[in-house]
Amino acid sequence: MDVTELNNLIESFGKDIYGFCYKLTRDKHQADDLYQETFLRATELCYKIDNTQNPKSFLIAIAANTWKNQKRKFGWRHNIAKIVAFEDDTHLIDATTPELVVLTNELHTMIDMASESLDDKLKIPLYMYYTAGLSVEDIASALKIPTGTVKSRLYRARKMIKEYMEVNGYEGF
């Protein structure tokens, strides 16, 4: 694969990859950095990308592995010097009534909080499935784990989110 083919992949899957990066980082600036790092790494590894296989899952795997590495490095740095983080996670939802907007925002906030509290082993496959739209087989291939493991992690993540929602008083989930 050459650079022009990689450029076509960016055009085809760029929004999905960025959405996945944003879900992992929960911050626009960090998502931008992760997105750039992902495609820089993809440029280095373009000879391994096979268009007949699922190139989107390959790029998602690069993003996930880059995020894990950055998070591990941040953990070491955070132990040395504490960093204050500012949250700016707003949801802009177009709805017909103000009540529906408030309820939908509350639901999204609760789901985000529940998914953020998950371990990376559960969170990354969950985001790959729902945010990036990858199949169970593609997630398994990208993370180099069996499909049964992906299915069980998705099940456990959904179950934990459901329990979180029930404990916090949200019915009907």
Task: Tell me about this structure.
The chain is mainly alpha-helical and 173 residues long. Helix content is 72%, strand content 0%. The protein has helices at residues 3-25, 28-44, 55-80, 98-116, 120-130, 136-143, 147-167. 23% of the residues are buried. The model is unreliable at 77-95 (pLDDT under 50).
First-to-last CA distance: 44 Å
Radius of gyration: 17 Å
How would you classify the helix and strand content by structural class?
A: mainly alpha
Low-confidence stretches: 77-95
- Largest sheet: number of strands, sense, barrel closure: none
Proportion in β-strands: under 5%
The outline comes out as: globular
- The ordered string of helix (H) and strand (E) elements is HHHHHHH
DSSP strand tally: 0
- Note the total helix count: 7
Q: Could you report the average pLDDT, rounded to the nearest whole number?
A: 82
Q: What's the helical proportion of residues?
A: over 70%
- Quaternary: single chain
Concise description?
With 173 residues, the chain is an all-alpha fold. The chain has helices at 3-25, 28-44, 55-80, 98-116, 120-130, 136-143, 147-167.
Give me the secondary-structure topology:
Layout: H1 3-25, H2 28-44, H3 55-80, H4 98-116, H5 120-130, H6 136-143, H7 147-167
Helix pairs in contact: 1-2, 1-3, 2-3, 3-6, 4-7, 5-7, 6-7
Keywords for this structure?
7 helices; single chain; 173 residues; mainly alpha
